[in-house]
Predict the structure.
Amino acid sequence: MSDVTPTHVLFTVPEWRTEAEIQLCEPATSRGVYVVTDRTCFHPVSHIWPDHPADRGTIGLGDRCFDVTGCFTGAVDLATSTLYVGTDIPVKRDVPGWAFVVVHHIAEDAQWRKGDTVILSVDRAYQQALSRGHSAGHLSSLALNKVLHSDYWRKDASRKDELGHYDFHSYAQQQSIVSEDKSTDTYRLGKTLRKRGFNTADMLANLVALTDLINQQLEIWRHSGAAVVMRREGVQLTDSRYWQCDLGEEEVIEIPCGGSHIQSLSEYSALFVQFEHVSDQELIMVTHTKP
């Protein structure tokens, strides 16, 4: 029976450097080793919704320091001590007998043992750039829904967002990618969306004006300098986390999210969207930020 425990994650605090104890160090499926520690400041890429890239950084032991070349979600079968990484994970979270962990990949064959103490250091600038991009994606989706709410729906759509607006973003989103100071959302404008009562043709015809309205809303929110809080239901990797922000829209909004985020809208010097009209079936919204 393995005594591996679920990873205590620190990227929501945020904390960029920490001392940790090795729980597992074993050969990776490719070159190098997988390292699992009891705690980490690294944000891993999700095996279910991989929109937010893994953090970069280093792991050091004694006088040796190694680059972390990948950081993944993993799960350990406690009965057999077997580590599964990424899409190989065969169970959902919170299944008894399993521990979900953060897996750090090192491309070299480090000969480390269970119980060794290491220093984990995250590339702070890179993580903060991803955090700005991820929070910006939440803000632009809310602004998009708000601008579309009154004039582009023929029916009362059942799904509403956290501000009470018809949730175009949720209905139409096909893909989301977070990158440094950027969030890219791809929307599918198919028959299903139109059957729900959305006027796709009107939206595409008015895209320039809609872009201006969205950016005006984002500028109002940016100027508020509102705090962003990550509410955590626990410190383990699989514990639920929520992005909270008071946008001055009657109540604090809360969005379930496992990514890393900014701490205040004052961290933005610029926040705006641009659209790419790929086809009548596909629309891409790119949210840009500047620190």
In short: The chain has a mean pLDDT of 96. The radius of gyration is 21 Å.
